[in-house]
Amino acid sequence: MSGATATDSTGGSALTPPPGAETPVRHPDAPEPGTPLGSHYEQCFGCGEAQSHGLHLEARAGEGVGVTAEFTVRPAHQGAPGLAHGGVLVSALDETLGSVQWLLRTIAVTGRLETEFVRPVPVGTTLHLRAHCTGVSGRKIYSSAEGRIGSPDGPVAVRARAVFVEVQLEHFTKNGRPEEIKAALDNPDQHKVVRAFEVNP
Ligand SMILES: CCCCCCCC/C=C\CCCCCCCC(=O)SCCNC(=O)CCNC(=O)[C@H](O)C(C)(C)COP(=O)(O)OP(=O)(O)OC[C@H]1O[C@@H](n2cnc3c(N)ncnc32)[C@H](O)[C@@H]1OP(=O)(O)O
């Protein structure tokens, strides 16, 4: 197997766009670079402003099909004493990579996500994240991300690559728990988000 490219059940290279993948195109109505993207769902663990247990990650539109985000590691995020839990860092990367959909105006969920932990991230650190789309192939959206310590030019602490798979709104209405689905559909702000993704609720 030496030198072979890792493959998966999809038959292709897992995390890099396959030959013939389309170059991602920023949607003409995507928010201007620097615009805060807000939350796609107020109870989201990654970005929800009403989620008291969440990461409260704040993402902004970047250049091209990219985003930037900040996440500050709090004591509740520890794995080892004084250091961020790896799974929490993966969540922050997942959320940042997911935010790229705002620029494509597509709803997609994480299919695969690979993370490289380059350095430990102490509690109190603000992680400066950026992510961009690297290719689109059918319903598969390929993207990559990195997180830097303390500033956008700080040392790299984490890197990730992912494949998101485009879904319809029914993905959530059919699979989610009825009480949260109802509350979300009753919330006018949620409808605005869905419209921003060009999906009919
Ligand atoms: C009520 C109101 C709600 C409002 C909400 C609206 C706003 C929301 C906005 C944005 C939401 C984003 C939320 C962000 C949160 C952060 C991101 C997360 O953490 S998401 C959670 C973790 N992920 C999952 O829970 C996925 C669980 N998995 C699945 O549901 C399925 O497996 C899914 C959808 C990923 C694929 O299932 P299939 O049946 O649709 O897929 P098939 O038709 O077989 O494949 C389509 C293509 O995708 C590839 N594919 C399928 N699964 C793949 C995978 N796991 N990895 C890579 N490729 C995969 C296949 O090979 C195929 O490719 P070929 O067309 O043949 O080239």
TrEMBL record:
Its topology with respect to the membrane? Peripheral membrane protein
Q: What Pfam families does this protein map onto? A: 4HBT (PF03061)
- Assigned keywords, A-Z: Apoptosis, Cell membrane, Cell projection, Cytoplasm, Fatty acid metabolism, Hydrolase, Lipid metabolism, Membrane, Transit peptide
Which Enzyme Commission number(s) are on file for it? 3.1.2.2
Q: Where in the cell is it found?
A: Cell projection, Ruffle membrane; Cytoplasm; Membrane
> What Gene3D superfamilies does the database record attribute to this sequence?
Hotdog Thioesterase
This enzyme catalyses:
(5Z,8Z,11Z,14Z)-eicosatetraenoyl-CoA + H2O = (5Z,8Z,11Z,14Z)-eicosatetraenoate + CoA + H(+); octanoyl-CoA + H2O = octanoate + CoA + H(+); (9Z)-octadecenoyl-CoA + H2O = (9Z)-octadecenoate + CoA + H(+); decanoyl-CoA + H2O = decanoate + CoA + H(+)
The protein depicted here goes by the name Acyl-coenzyme A thioesterase THEM4
Lineage per the UniProt record:
Bacteria, Bacillati, Actinomycetota, Actinomycetes, Kitasatosporales
One cellular component GO annotation, for this chain's record? membrane
The yes or no answer to whether the keyword Transmembrane is present is no
Q: Give the superkingdom in one word.
A: Bacteria
**Ranges for region Disordered:** 1-38
Question: One GO molecular function term?
Answer: hydrolase activity
The record's annotation in SUPFAM superfamilies points to: Thioesterase/thiol ester dehydrase-isomerase
Q: What class of enzyme is it?
A: hydrolase
Family membership: Belongs to the THEM4/THEM5 thioesterase family.
Residues annotated as domain Thioesterase: 82-149
Q: Name one GO biological process term.
A: fatty acid metabolic process
Q: Where is the composition biased (Polar residues)?
A: 1-13
